[in-house]
C-alpha cells in the first residue's frame, strides 16, 4: 500500500520526470511510498481511485490567449476524463500544474481550469521539469494538504 497516490499525464516527459523525482524525495526524506498512475499509459482506461490523490498535469492549449475565451485544451483531456470517471474527483486533494512561463497568461492554465471545474485546490506549479527547490516546496504543500485531508475525512 502506498502512502500517497500521484495521478498524472506526461507527454514530453517533463511531468513524469518531476513525479519520479518528487516520489524519490518523499521516499528519502519522509519514508513515504508513492503510487504513480500515468494516465498516458492507460489508453483511455479508467478505474476508481478510492484513496486520496494529487493530480499533476502540463498545459497544452490551442488558440486563445489565456485571458479571453478561445483556448482549447489539447492532449491532456484523458486526465480530465479519468478524474471525472467513477467520481474520482471526490478523492483528489488538489492539482499541480506545469508549463512554460514564456506562455504568460496561459502558464498552468489547464490546472487552473481543472481546479475550477472540479472544485479542488490548485496546490502549486512548476516550470518545465521543475527544480530541486520546486520538489521541496511542493512536497511540503502536499504533506500539509494530506494532513488536513486526513483530519477532515
From TrEMBL:
Alphabetical list of SUPFAM superfamilies matching this protein: Flavoproteins
Pfam families: Flavodoxin_NdrI
InterPro entries: Flavoprotein-like_sf, RNR_NrdI
One GO MF term attached to the UniProt entry: FMN binding
Xref: PANTHER family: PROTEIN NRDI
Protein name: Putative NrdI-like protein
Amino acid at each position: 500500500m502506498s502512502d500517497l497516490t500521484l495521478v498524472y499525464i506526461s507527454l514530453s516527459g517533463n511531468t513524469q520526470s518531476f513525479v519520479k523525482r518528487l516520489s524519490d524525495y518523499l521516499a528519502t526524506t519522509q519514508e513515504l511510498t508513492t503510487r504513480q498512475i500515468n494516465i498516458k499509459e492507460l489508453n483511455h482506461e479508467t478505474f476508481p481511485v478510492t484513496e486520496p490523490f494529487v493530480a499533476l498535469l502540463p498545459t497544452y492549449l490551442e488558440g486563445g490567449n489565456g485571458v479571453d475565451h478561445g483556448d482549447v485544451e489539447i492532449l491532456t483531456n484523458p486526465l480530465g476524463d479519468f478524474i471525472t470517471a467513477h467520481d474520482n474527483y471526490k478523492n483528489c486533494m488538489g492539482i499541480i500544474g506545469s508549463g512554460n512561463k514564456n506562455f504568460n497568461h496561459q502558464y498552468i492554465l489547464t490546472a487552473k481550469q481543472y481546479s475550477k471545474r472540479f472544485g479542488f485546490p490548485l496546490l502549486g506549479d512548476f516550470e518545465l521539469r521543475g527544480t530541486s527547490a520546486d520538489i521541496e516546496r511542493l512536497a511540503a504543500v502536499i504533506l500539509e494538504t494530506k494532513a488536513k485531508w486526513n483530519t477532515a475525512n
